[in-house]
């Protein structure tokens, strides 16, 4: 778990670095990435397309890499995918340096496909965890994610700020992310031990993600849980991808300010998934946690519209972070517990396909909605998370998954 934790941390640190960059990059007319005549709505629509291109490729990569890891082992697939991640960051940096949006899309799509390796990480954890340990161990991955979001966005905002160092620009965080991915690569080569006991010769194809959606929503035991997962991620993605636009337009945030805000959120997510979730998981089964975490997350989202000055956001964000931190690993644990030990990689790959598809649509929709009303993505986030909670109320599972053994 120590190696998995640190590997996830370095991987997510590279992801977190770019969070404060995307919105300012597209909305900053002085950068000249886009022609000056592009309107605010044009810029937000293209930003949405770039964001969704990541999830589009992750949708295909998740199931493919998950099944590939069942066939060839977790270590080999994780190593190859992180090598691709490093290359993707280099392409992104070059796209910014050269002012070529096409390279931004190419790098973002490569990173998206390789981000399907989260299914491999979850599969490795499932390999070494008992059903009782899964929520806690998936929570450790969430804590690594949270810590990466503490350091990553803060670093990204600072590294892109020429006021701090004269030669810093929007490309600098991507160069650093590429270097961190290479460090992660060395760590896996030296320290990551293969976790799969018996490899399974699964069929491989790049379009399996499409079939996975059909499997996810027709599987007799898992379809309701997959629907809840889809709605939760669909809703939360509205927040993560477009809160930057809201911050820029309402509170005049710069990239360094956005980085600091996401770092603050990351602290609370890390505290939740690294500490709070452990005592909670000892008292409640995953579904029991979801019954209160989803509804409180939806209410917290709406609370983001209340602050009139920026410091008040920091009073609301801990609630968003805590309830998100409780929800995410417990959904994954529920999916894993309902799957057999011999198909963990496949089922968690399907879960990542559902996740990627859920992240694909909000940037496309939100990129249009935010051009009309910058509050709409927040309303959308709260609405879909509330629907996930309502679906959960109808979920019927066996006593084994409802109660603690």
How does this model look, in words?
The protein is an all-alpha fold and 405 residues long. Helices cover 77% and strands 0% of the residues. The relative contact order is 0.17.
Work out the helix count: 16
- Multimeric status of the protein: single chain
Low-confidence segments, given as residue ranges, are 396-405
**CATH architecture label name:** Up-down Bundle
End-to-end Cα distance: 23 Å
SSE string, helix = H, strand = E?
HHHHHHHHHHHHHHHH
The helix/strand class is mainly alpha
| Count of all domains | 1
Helix content: over 70%
- The top-level CATH class is Mainly Alpha
Fill in the keyword field for this structure.
mainly alpha; Growth Hormone, Chain: A; disordered C terminus; 16 helices; 405 residues; globular
Helices and strands in order, then pairings?
Elements: H1 2-17, H2 22-27, H3 40-72, H4 74-98, H5 101-114, H6 118-128, H7 134-159, H8 172-191, H9 208-218, H10 223-251, H11 255-283, H12 286-303, H13 313-337, H14 344-372, H15 376-392, H16 399-402
Kindly summarize this structure in a few lines.
This protein has 405 residues and is an all-alpha fold. It has helices at residues 2-17, 22-27, 40-72, 74-98, 101-114, 118-128, 134-159, 172-191, 208-218, 223-251, 255-283, 286-303, 313-337, 344-372, 376-392, 399-402.
């Amino acid at each position: 778990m120590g190696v998995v934790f640190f590997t996830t941390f370095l991987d997510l640190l590279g992801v977190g670095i770019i969070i404060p960059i995307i919105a300012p990059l597209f909305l900053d007319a002085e950068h000249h990435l886009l022609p000056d005549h592009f309107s605010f709505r044009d810029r937000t629509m293209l930003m949405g397309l770039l964001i969704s291109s990541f999830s589009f490729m992750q949708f295909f990569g998740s199931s493919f890499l998950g099944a590939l890891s069942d066939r060839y082992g977790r270590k080999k697939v994780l190593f190859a995918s992180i090598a691709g991640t490093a290359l993707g960051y280099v392409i992104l940096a070059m796209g910014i340096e050269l002012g070529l949006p096409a390279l931004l899309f190419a790098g973002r799509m490569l990173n998206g496909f390789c981000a399907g390796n989260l299914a491999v990480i979850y599969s490795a954890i499932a390999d070494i965890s008992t059903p009782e340990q899964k929520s806690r161990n998936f929570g450790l991955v969430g804590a690594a994610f949270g810590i990466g979001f503490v350091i990553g966005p803060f670093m990204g905002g600072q590294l892109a700020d020429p006021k701090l160092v004269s030669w810093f620009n929007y490309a600098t965080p991507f160069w650093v992310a590429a270097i961190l991915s290479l460090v992660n690569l060395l760590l896996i080569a030296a320290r990551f031990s293969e976790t799969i006991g018996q490899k399974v010769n699964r069929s491989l194809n790049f379009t399996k993600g499409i079939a996975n959606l059909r499997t996810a929503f027709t599987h007799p035991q898992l379809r309701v849980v997959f629907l809840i997962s889809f709605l939760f991620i669909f809703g939360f993605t509205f927040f993560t991808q477009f809160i930057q636009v809201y911050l820029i337009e309402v509170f005049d945030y710069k990239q360094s300010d956005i980085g600091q805000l996401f770092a603050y959120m990351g602290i609370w997510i890390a505290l939740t998934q690294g500490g709070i979730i452990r005592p909670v998981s000892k008292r409640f089964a995953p579904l029991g946690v979801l019954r209160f975490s989803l509804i409180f997350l939806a209410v917290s989202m709406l609370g983001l519209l209340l602050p009139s000055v920026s410091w008040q956001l920091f009073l609301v964000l801990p609630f968003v972070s805590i309830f998100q931190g409780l929800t995410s690993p417990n959904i994954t644990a529920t999916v894993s517990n309902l799957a057999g030990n011999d198909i963990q990689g496949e089922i968690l790959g399907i879960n990542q396909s559902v996740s990627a598809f859920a992240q694909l649509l909000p940037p496309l929709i939100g990129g249009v909605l935010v051009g009309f009303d910058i509050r709409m993505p927040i309303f959308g986030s709260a609405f879909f998370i509330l629907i996930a909670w309502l679906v959960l109320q109808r979920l019927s599972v066996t006593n084994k998954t409802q109660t603690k053994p």
